[in-house]
Each structure stands twice: as structure tokens, then as C-alpha cells.
Amino acid sequence: MNARLSFSFxxxxxxxxxxxxxxxxxxxxxxxxxxxxxxxxxxxxxxxHAVANVTWNETLFxxxxxxxxNFTCPEPFSAGSNLGHISENPYGENLAIxxxxxxxxxxxxxEISMYNFTAGEFSESTGHFTQLIWNATTQVGxxxxxxxxxxxxxVVCEYYPRGNIxxxxxxxxxxxxxxxxxxxVSSSSSTASSSSRASPSNAGxxxxxSGRSSTSSRSSTSSTSSRxxxxxxxxxxxxxWKLTTILFGLLMTV
Length: 254
What we know:
Blueprint: H1 2-21, H2 32-47, E1 55-56, H3 58-70, E2 92-99, H4 101-109, H5 127-132, E3 139-148, E4 152-160, E5 214-217, H6 239-253
Parallel strand pairs: 1-3
Antiparallel strand pairs: 2-4, 2-5, 3-4
């Protein structure tokens, strides 16, 4: 009897310690107005190329928020720094600093002027644009971090499935479908309460200091599409608590 009670006590302690060590990490709060603005801007740009809307994904947002939180802002009046791409990122990613919230999206889209739709190939100078309107991408999550008065805001957007896959540009990057930038179009898949895209006055604006703004885009430069394979975004965080449930079940049956 004493041995059974001792074993039950051990199981109970294990359950408690497992809960402590496997607890979820920091959860970031969503700025709804920011999410609405960048999602509407993203879907507007995609609509110009007859590409389906992307939807907001909480897992991608949390990943983007973590990336932004860990970014070391450049010092005022400095020449800038690496914007922070990491090789183990399973998602497509666009980065920018020195723009307004939607200005970052507009800056990425403006690379269209340098993209060769006939060739349909990746280029470092157009990687943000091609990821932004990539046809196979269906979900997005973005976050931001204010740095300082000189550099302004750092913006991170994560995309799934990732774009810029070598050999898949023709079937994923389409030319303009006839609409012109500035037109208001319907946006059914949005976090916004309105069904149409907002028209922010600062869309496409840069910081006042010439040359300060900077953007960076990750690309899948491998010769195969295998880098598009990653864990599907999901919001289930129940995993860490399942072990506790199992151990507690053992306690009750001992």
C-alpha cells in the first residue's frame, strides 16, 4: 500500500514538473488595425494579378512577432544592418525597415517595374514582389517593431506556402490583369470589418530621408521545390499539456 502511494506521489510530481518545463512560450498580442491594413494592402496587390486573397494566420503572426522581437535595431544615423533572415525559417519571408506599415507592402510591390514576366525567373531585386503575389501562397502573418526616430519601423511578413520556388515562377507570378493601382477592389478574405480595401493616404510612402528605407526578401534558391515543404501553420497549442493529462491519468489509475 505504501509503495503504491509513493508511486502515485511520484507521478503527481512528474505531472507538475512536466507542466512547468513544457509550458507554451510567449504569446504576442495582435494589433488589429495593423493586421487589417497589411492584409488589405496585400490582397489588393494580389487582386491586380487575378490571384486569390490570402488569409491571416495566427501561427504565422506569432512567428513574425518573434522574429521582430528578436531583431536588433540599427543605431540612429548608422548605415543599417542585416535585416535578419534565418536559414531555418520554414516560411516565405519579406522584411523591411524605414517604411510605414502598408508602405512596406507597397515598396515590395513596386519591384514589379523590374520583373521580367516573359522570363519568369527569380531575381534578388524582385523577390519581395514575387513572394507577395505568389499564386500558391494562401496564408500570411505580419508583425512590426518600432526601432527609433531615424529608422522608424521594422516590418516582418511570413507566407505559407512559401513562394520564390525556382522553376515555378511562370505558374505562380502572373502579369497585371488590367486593374490599376489605386482602384478600390473587393476583399472578401480579410480581418477587416469592411469588405473592401482601405485606401490609406500613406500607402507607398517612404521615410523622409532618401536612401534610409531598406527591404529584404528570402528566396528558395535551391534547384528543387523541396524547400517549400514545411509544417502547415496551425494554432493548436494543446500539445504541451497532453503529457500532463496522460501522467495525471496514470496517477488516478494507480
